[in-house]
Amino acid sequence: MSLSSATLLNSVALSPDSPPLLHADVGSDPVGWAAGHRAALRSVVAEHGCVLVRGLGLADPAGAETVFRRLTDSLMADREPFAPRRTYAEGVYSATKWPTDQPMCQHHELSYALDFPGLLLFACLEAPTQGGATPVADAEAVLQSLPAPLVERFEREGWMLTRTYHEEIGASVAEAFGTDDRSVVERYCRTQGIEFAWQHDGSLRTRQRRAAVLRHPVTGRRCWFNQIAFLNEWTMEPEVREYLVDVYGADALPFNTRFGNGDPVDAGIVTTINEAYDRHVRREPWRSGDLLLVDNIRTAHGREPFEGPREVLAGLGDPVRLSDLAPTAGGRAA
C-alpha cells in the first residue's frame, strides 16, 4: 500500500451507525484530487466496503461524470432497469425514479443481471431538505444473521425474478432493453438466460433465475447478493400492491420474486430479510457535493424517503460477470 493510501485509511472516521467518512481537502480541483487519490480511495473501499467522501464539491453532472471516470476502470450501461431514470452519459444516471415518500429497501445494483457493476459511485449534487440518505449494509454480516435454513435453500435453488413490462407503470420494454424491436429484445433475453413470452395485449413477461449468494472476487467471502426482498410484492405499500393486483392480476405484477424453483416468497420471509438488513444498516445524511463509493457485492444500499429536491447521480463502474464468480445454484437460466 502506498503512503497516500495508508494516510487516507488512517484519516477515515469510523462509526457503527454511519458509513466510513472521509473529509477531503480538494481546494478548487475535485477532479485532480480524485485522480490523484484513486488508488488510495479504492484501498479504503477494499478495506471497509464503502466510503463517503465529504468536501469534494461536486456540483454538476459533467463534473461528477469526470470524477466517476477517474475512479473506475470503466462504466457500464444500465441493463433491465425496473424503473426509468435519466441518462447523463454512458454509465452515468439519475437516481431511480421511486416515490419520494417510500423507502427503497436494501439491495445490490443489477443483481438480477449476468453483468453488474462491481463499484457504485453516487454524487450528491443537491441534498434534500429532509431524509433521503443512501443507507448501506454489510452483505457478509446480513448473510450471517439470516436463518441458516433460509440461506441454504436460496443457495441451493437461487432466486427467481418475474417481470411484466407495462407501458403505464415501471420501465417499459423500450426503457428496459433500449429498443421495442421484438427480435432484438428476444435475442437479448436468450443471451442473458431470460425466459420470455409476449402476451395478447402486447406486454412482455420474463423470468430469470440467479444466485442469491456470491463469493467476493477479492476476499472470497460469501455475500448475500440479490434483490429478493426489494423487488418482492410484499415490500410494496399494501395499498400499492392491492391496486396493482386489482389492475393487472397477481401473476402480472411489474416485478416480483420467488424461490428458484418458482415457489412464492411469502411476507414473513421478506420481513425476515428486511429485518436482517435493518440490523446492519449505517446511514449519513447527504450534503451537497458528497461522493459515496460502494463495493456493490460486499455492500448493499437503499434510499430513504425524503422531502424537497434531491439530485443524486449514480455511476455503474467496473463491470463484473456473474459466471466469473462461480456462483452457487441459479446463476444463469430460469
TrEMBL record:
Keywords annotated in UniProt: Antibiotic biosynthesis, Dioxygenase, Iron, Oxidoreductase
EC number, UniProt record: 1.14.11.-
Domain TauD/TfdA-like: 29-313
GO terms of molecular function: dioxygenase activity
Organism: Streptomyces prunicolor
Pfam assignment, any one: TauD
Top-level taxon in the UniProt lineage: Bacteria
Protein name: TauD/TfdA family dioxygenase
Cofactor dependency: Fe(2+)
